[in-house]
Amino acid sequence: MSFVHQEALDASLRWLRAGQDVHVIGDVGSGRTRVLRAVAESLRTSGAAVAELSGTAGEDSVPLGGFLTHPTLRPRGSVARWSVPEATSSLAEAIAGRRAVVVVDDVHLLDRPSLTVIDAVARRAPGPVRVVTTVPAGVPTEGPWSALARPAAAVPVAPLDVNEVATLLAARLGGQVDGGLAAAVAGRSGGNPRAAVTLAQAAAGAGSIRQTDGRWTQTGSLESVPTQSVLHGLLGGMPAELRAGLETLAWFGLLDVDHARTLLGTERLAALDAAGRIAIDERPEARLVAVNPPVLGQALRAHLSGTRRALLRDRGEELLGPAGSAGDSILAGAPRPSATGTPAADGRPVHQVTILTESVRTRAALWSDTWATRHDVASALPLLRLHLVDGMAPVDVDEVFTGTSLAPTDDPEEVAAYLVLRGQWAAQSGGTIRSGLLDDPGPSGRLVLDGAGETFLRYLDQLHGTSDRAPDAGTIDVEQDVPRSMRGYVTIHQARAAVEAGAPDRALDLLGSWQDSGFQRPFTHRLDSLRGDALLMVGQVDDAVAWARRRRSAAYDELSPFGVRLAARGLASALFVQGDHDRALRALSVVLRLDRCGPVQSPFDERIFGLAAVLHARAGHHEMARTLLDELERTPRPYVPVLDFVRPWARMEVEHAVSGGAPDGEPLWSAGERLWSQGRLASAMFSWALTPQRLTGARLTRLEEGFAAVHIPLLAPAVRLHRRLTHGTSSRVLESIRSMDPRDPMTYVAAKVASALAVQEGRHTLTADELAEATGTQAPIRTAAAGPEAGLTARETEITALVREGLTNREIASRLFLSVRTVESHLYRAMQKLGASDRRELAT
After folding, report:
1. Which helix (H) or strand (E) holds 568?
2. Contact, 259 vs 320, CB < 8 A?
3. CA nearest to 740, candidates 727, 728, 731, 749
4. What is the pLDDT of residues 179-235, one digit of tens each?
5. Which of 55, 72, 285, 572 is the most exposed place for a label (fewest CB within 10 A)?
C-alpha cells in the first residue's frame, strides 16, 4: 500500500540528497509527523545515523526537555538531568558516522538549551549533519527555533486527494473504500488526514457507512455524524481567541471577507488563514470566506450553545446592521465577482470545495426559512435546485411541491423552470413529465403550464420515455408549438439531438441563436455544456478549453455546484483530448469531492466518473480506477446521456491498464453497433473510432462510411490510424503513434501491428527501444502480453531506471537512502515481473 504523503516524503529525501536541511510544514492533522517518521525510517534503512527528537512545551519548559524524555539520549544511571555539554556529547555520539541526520518534530516547542545543543552538533560535527524539522502552519516565523529552520528547504504537506484518502481509509478501516465514500470524506475533511479518519470512524460508529463484501460504502448522510472528536482533533491547543473567531465564522457559514474582517479583526482572520483553518476564494474579485474543512464548521455549529448563538446574532447585528442578525442573510450584500476574473482553477481545490459546500449550507438554510414563510415559486425554485440539480442539500421535495402556490409576483420564466423540475421529478418517481407539468398538487391547483399543446406534450413524452432511440430533432416547431418560457428547455434537446446525429456545427448554430435567461440557470449550464462538446467535436479544442474555463469561472461566481460540475467536466474532456492528463485530473479534483449531481441530472456524472477512472488507470492508480468505475456503473439514468459511449470505453481502458495485456475492444465495437441502430450516430462513431483493434476490411468500411455520414473532425486522426493499421506500412503506423499517449490502448495495438508489419516487410521484430526512438516517446510502449513495467510499483520502477543508468546496487541504495538488501529485494521482484533473467537483460 502506497504512502499517502509520498510527494512530501519524496521532496524531503531529494533535498537531503542535495545536501539541504528540510523544514516540513502543514496544518494540524495534516500528517507532518507521519512524513517525518517516514523520512527517518528511509534514512535509517539506507545506513544513515538518525537521531529523533520532539518538542515538548516551548522555550520556557524544563531545560533539555527534549533529551530528558528520549529513550537513548536521556541521562543514564544516577544522573537526573543533562547539562548542555553532556547533552551535546550524547547527541554527537548518537549520530557519529559518515551520514548523520537530526529530525525534530514540533521544533517550535523545543526549549532553548535543546536548540543550542542541536545547533552546536550540526555545526561542529566532523561530517555534514542534516537537520529535518516540522512545525504547524500558522506558527509565527520568528522565535528561538527559527534560526534552526530558516536555512532549510520548506516542504509543505499538501491536503490528500481522493485517491490518497481512499488509501488512508482502507488502512484505518480495514477494507477497500468505495470511490464515492472516499470522495465525500475528502470533500468534507478538506483532505486533512486526521479529519478524514475521525469523520470516517465516527460515520462507521453511527452506521452512516458500512462494509459490504469487503468494501466500505456510504449508507447514510455524513451531515448527521457526531463530530465532537473533530473539534478535539483539529482545535486542540488553539488559543481561545482564535477558536471563538472560528465559532463566529461557522455560525454565519459563508461570509464576505470585509464582513469577516469587521467581526473578527484583521489580525485574527490572518492568524486563522495562516493556520489553515479558513478557506478563502482566492480570486481577487471574489470575497468569500468559510471555516475549513467543512466538517469542522459542521462540528462547531453543532456544539454552539443557545446562549452563544444569541450572542453571535447580537454581535452580527451590532457590527453589520440588520443583515447580520439572521446570520445566513449576510451574503445578500456581498459584492459579486465578474466572470472575467482569475480562473477558479488557480485556487486550491480544497478551498473551492469548502466555499461551495458552505455556500449551499448557508443558502439552504436561508431559502428554507424564506419558503416556509412565503410558499411561492420564487422561494421554492432555488431550494428545489439545491437538491434536484446540485445534489447537495437534503430537501423534502414532495413537501415543497405540495406546499407551493402561484403568486402574482412570480415570473413566468421562473414558473417554467419550476414546472420542468416538477415534471422531471414526476418522471423520476414513476410518473410522466406531462403529469408534472399539468397536475398541480399544491394548494391553489393553478400552478400548471399554460399554452402547452398536444404536439409539445407528445414531444416531451418522447424525450422522457423509456426508449433508447435518439429523439428526432425535427419533430417540433419551436416558434409555433413551444410556449415561450419553455424554449430554452427545448433548445437543450434540439442541441442534444444535433450532437447525437453527428452534426455539432448545427448544434452550435442552435446554441448561438438562444438568448440567455437570467432565471433558467439549469437550462443555462446544460446549454453551455453542449456548446463545449460541440466545439470539441468540430476540432476546435483550444476554443473548447477556453470556453470551459470561462463557464467554470462564471459557475463559481454563481456558487453553482451543478454549473461547476458541468464546466469542469467539459474542461477535463478538452484537456484529455489535448493529452494534458495531469490538468484534466486536476480539473475534476473539485467535482470528485462534491456530492453527485441531483437525481434529475445524474447522467451528467457518467463522463465525470468515466473520465476520472481512465485518468487514474493510466496513472497507475488501479484501485481508485476500479472504484470510480463502480461509481459509474451505479449512476442512475433517468434519461440516456448525450455521447453515450463512456461506460464501455472506461471499462475497456481500466481492464487494459490493470491487466497490462492486449485490450479487449470487442465490447466497445459491439456498443457502437447497438448505438448506430438506435440512431445515436455520434456515440456509435466514438465507440468505433476508440476500439483498440486492427479492424477487418468490413469493419473498416463500416467505420469510414459512418465517418462520412457525420461531421466530427475530432475523430479524423483515429479513423486515419485505423486505415493505416489495416492497409498501411510499419513506418506509417509508427508515424501515427508519434503524438499518442504510450498508455493509450490504441498505442499498444498500433505498436503490435507495426512490429508484425516490420517482419512482413523483411525486417526484424521491433524492440521497445526502437519503438520509442521511432515514435519520439519517452515512456516505454508495451507490446508483449506480459505488459513490461505495467505491474511495477513506483519504487521498483525507480530502481529499474537506475539499473539502466548503470548504477550498482550499493550506489542505488546510497542515492535512494535504502539498504542494499531492500534494493536487492525490489530488483528481484521487478525482474520477475518483467521476465528478465539478469541485470543486462533488465537494462536492455
Report:
1. helix 561-578
2. yes
3. 749
4. 888 988 999 999 999 999 999 999 999 999 999 888 898 888 887 788 888 888 898
5. 72
CA distance 53 to 72: 11
Judged by DSSP in three states, 117 sits in helix
Indicate whether 417 pLDDT > 60.
yes
pLDDT above 60 for 730: yes
**Are the CB atoms for 211 and 175 separated by under 8 Å?**
yes
Kindly report, residue by residue over 494-525, the tens digit of the pLDDT: 888 999 999 999 999 888 876 544 444 557 88
Taking a C-beta distance cutoff of 8 angstroms, is the pair 594, 565 a contact?
Answer: yes
C-alpha to C-alpha distances, 449 to 346, 417, 493, 520, nearest whole angstrom: 43, 10, 19, 15
Q: Which residues contact 141 (CB under 8 A, 6 or more apart)?
A: none
Contact predicate 576/582, CB 8 Å: no
The label of the residue with cell 531492500 reads 822
What is the residue whose three cell numbers read 476574473? 341
Angle at which helices 541-558 and 521-537 cross, to 10°: 160
Q: Is the peptide bond before 599 cis (omega within 30 degrees of 0)?
A: no
Are the beta carbons of 644 and 683 closer than 8 angstroms? Answer: yes
Q: Which three cell numbers stand for residue 797?
A: 520502477
Determine phi and psi for 639, rounding to 5 degrees: -155, 165
Task: Match 471563538 to its residue by C-alpha cell.
Answer: 244
Within 8 A by CB and 6+ apart from 833, the residues are 786, 791, 792, 796
Check if the beta carbon of residue 371 is closer than 8 Å to that of residue 383: yes
CB-based contact 587:345 (threshold 8 Å): yes
Convert the pLDDT of each residue in 143-187 to its tens digit: 778 877 777 899 999 999 888 898 899 989 988 888 888 988 999
On the question of pLDDT at 141 being above 90, the answer is no
Which helix or strand (DSSP H or E) is residue 101 part of? Answer: strand 100-105
Eight-class DSSP state of 776: T
501 with 531: CB under 8 angstroms?
Answer: no
Structure letter (DSSP) for residue 53: E
Determine the Cα–Cα distance for residues 839 and 811; give it in Å rounded to an integer. Answer: 15
Closest CA to 470 of 677, 706, 685: 677
CA atoms of 145 and 69, how far apart (whole Å): 19
How many residues are there in the chain?
844
Q: What's the DSSP call for residue 336?
A: P
Q: What is the DSSP string of 153-212?
A: EEEE-PPP-HHHHHHHHHHHHTSEE-HHHHHHHHHHHTT-HHHHHHHHHHHHHHTSEEEE
Cα separation of 614 and 692, whole Å?
15
Beta strands in 395-490 (DSSP E): none
Q: Which of 9, 194, 165 is nearest to 624 (CA)?
A: 165
Place of cell 499518442: 740
Sign of CA dihedral 301, 306, 308, 309: positive
Residue pair 41/48 in contact by the 8 Å Cβ criterion: no
Strand 255-256 to 153-156 pairing? unpaired
Report the distance separating Cα 117 and Cα 127, nearest Å.
16
- Which stretches does DSSP call E strand in 281-434? 288-291
CA atoms of 330 and 63, how far apart (whole Å): 50
Residues 44 and 37: their CA atoms lie apart, in Å, by 10
Structural contact between residues 91 and 73, judged by C-beta atoms closer than 8 angstroms: yes
